[in-house]
Amino acid sequence: MIAWLRTPVGMWSTIVLGALLCLPAILPELMPENQARFWLANIFGRAIIYGIIAMSLTFLATYGGFVSLAQMSLAGVAGYVVAVTVNGAVPSIVGGLSYLTAIPLGVFAAVAAALFVGLVSVRTRDIYLLMITLALAMGFFRFVETNIAWFNGYEGIRNVLGPTVFGLPFRDPHVLYYVSLATAISLYAGVLYLVRSPFGLVLQGIRDNPRRIAALGYNVAHHRIAAFGVAGFIAGCGGVLATIYNIGISPGSVGLSATVNVLIMSVIGGLGHPIGAFIGSLIFAFFDTFAASIYDRNRFNTLIGVVFLIIVLVSPDGVIGFAKRARAFAKEKAAPKDWSRQGSKPG
Amino acid sequence: MSIRLSRRYALKGAGALAVTAAAGASLKSPAIAQNAPIRIGSVATLEGPFATGGQDGYRAMEMLFQAENMTIGGRRIEWIRESSNAQADVALARARKLIEQDNVDIIIGPLSGAEGIAMKDYSATLTGKTIVNGSSGAADTTLRNPSRNFFRFNTDGTQWMAGLGNYVRRTLNVSEVTVVAGDYAFPYAQVFGFSLEFCRAGGRANYLWSPLGTTDFASQIAQIPRSSGALVVVHGGTDGLAFMTQYAQAGGNLPIIGGSIMADQTMLSARGPHRRLMVGMVAAGPMADVIDDPNWTDFVARYRRMPGAFPSPSIHAVNFATNTMAVIRALKEVNGDLSGNQANFQRVLAAQKFKAPTGADVSLDHNRQAISDIFLTRIEERNNQPMTVAFQRATQINQTLGTPEAAFLALGAPSRTNTGCIAAS
């Protein structure tokens, strides 16, 4: 453990974790009280929540090699199940459940839906997988948009205020932030653990060469479907948090722009490691909120687009790739006479 | 070596923190002065399919603020504009930013229905802040579970159809109509408003629904029963145009009754066979291109002087203007004083009675929803330009179209199976 802390990764993880835990205390020192609350809930809290959903995509892409566009819909399935079943939502469709039951039910539904997505798309790869998951996502979007009886159509279900945590309302920025952070850290640690487990190793084997894995006696299809289930669990947790954060859910939450936003977060953060999802999500939340203040209000989407383009142009593997490049560059500068390194790959 | 490395990493970390700190500090707002400005935020759609509507809403707001010289009660108006894309989550994120980061006192917005409901819910969690609607027209923004911090001075989609059902049944003497409508929330509300009156007056209605974005209406046109005396078309934009074109090509000749957003500029400026049927089309709504009222004439003249203005203000310009007028009037009445968690301001705002740009009298009900006039309009050619002309006014229409609120709520929310067509007992 101590040895791990001394490694650069360990050092950084500890610093970042410490900073995240102390953030609610640091922010009020930097800005007025009300803005500190805004930053805590609506920049960092939001980034963590959508980062969880983006991480479900990053997990599939990094370790399985599947880019799925259905992740926002799976989050939506969890969100809708909570909104439909929980007490106090407006309109009350089924109602009657406490958050303690509704939340696990929502996550369970997301896992079930994810297994279904995995099953439907089990024989597709690359662009075909992208298209089939996009089709499923749009199908879900149109379904909730037109179904009045169960999902209240276009207007969606509102007033999902969230549970009280240790006697504090979920709407308190500190509660929202810490619950989201705790969820994100557990899921993140879970992903890092899972990819070192036999299941994770098989998954990475499938990514690199499915035929060879099949020849070794593993059932590729089952592993793929199970990977979608895991991603569905992650997306479901994010979806429940996002629904409570947005005080409800409407078809716009699972529409095309929401679906693409999750992909954008993952790509600008970098698909090489689960942490990229959170970095991408933070950058996204920042620019989505402040672009209109920085640049012309009628054209602020241009600024957002340009920033994302620059990130992807400078570093095709996102911000985490950029960090790797910078480190390699610094190393090369520090040891310019080390000719023996010339032939080796950077990073 | 490892110690040197860790120090470097620690330094890098500290550097990153310092940059964050500097960025944060630069975002700090200046200390509030004695005569601080009134901060008004606004949310409208400047992106997506409703972008021109959002821009037109802001044009009208700018016109009204400029007329006050951007000052009320000795306090400068600081106007912070935000843009949404007609989606609830985005509007909510913008509203949060305005209230919590920019510290605005009042928000005017949003433009579309689901956004309005999301912002109403958000407003209920606030103290000492006021949200006044922009142009959104979903009934439930104020009808069910209303928020004490949310005010709407424009009428909703169901109210907009007031007077039309009676006109078709009694004046045109049509006993059976076929309603063709889009299969989503806004047409549901409009059909509900029409059917409520029409069926109560003894009319019968058939309904044909089609999803938003339908391009081929041929099978639907074939289903229109021969017994229909008129066609009620509740589509908007390109759907309406596609239906009307195909109906005209199929040789349709029934009189056309339109929903409130049928007679918009997309429809009026497009060329094609539908124009034969469009001239003479009767519709109902909160405004028309031509209204014989001095308030309207004056408003249109002022509006046209704004850069980029259309020949006639859009429905969004009128709605944003009506809501902004209410805010300006109330701010003047309290002399810019928003103290006491805005309690006094909100009381004064709720009690506003004034003439909207269209000349309609506006006041609020107990849910802070507008009671106002609705216009019956007809499309006429004037100077070779088709335009909507108001020929009749249904006065003081409330949100439940005159039905007692409990009875209206008991009817349930409008949908394709709940059309509001309940025959008079």
Detailed description of the structure:
The complex is a heterodimer of chains A (347) and B (425). Chain A has helices spanning 2-6, 8-30, 33-64, 71-85, 99-120, 126-146, 148-151, 173-194, 198-208, 210-215, 220-245, 256-269, 275-294, 300-314, 318-334; strands at 157-158, 164-165, 168-169, 248-249. In chain A, strand 2 (164-165) and strand 3 form a beta hairpin. In chain A, the strands form two sheets. In chain A, strands 1-4 form a two-stranded antiparallel ribbon. Chain A folds into two domains: 1-30; 36-255, no CATH class. In chain A, helix 5 packs antiparallel against helix 11. With 347 residues, chain A is an all-alpha fold. The longest helix of chain A has 32 residues, at 33-64. Chain B folds into two domains: 38-155 and 293-372, 3-Layer(aba) Sandwich (Rossmann fold); 159-285 and 383-410, Rossmann fold, CATH 3.40.50. Helices cover 38% and strands 20% of the residues of chain B. Chain B is built from 14 helices and 15 strands. In chain B, strands 7, 8, 9, 10, 11, 12, 13, 14 and 15 form a nine-stranded mixed beta sheet that branches. A six-stranded mixed beta sheet of chain B has the order 2-3-1-4-5-6, sandwiched between helices. In chain B, helix 2 (51-67) runs parallel beside helix 12 (315-333). The model of chain B is unreliable at 1-5 and 16-34 (pLDDT under 50). Chains A and B meet through helix 2, helix 3 and helix 13 of A and helix 1, strand 3, helix 3 and helix 4 of B.
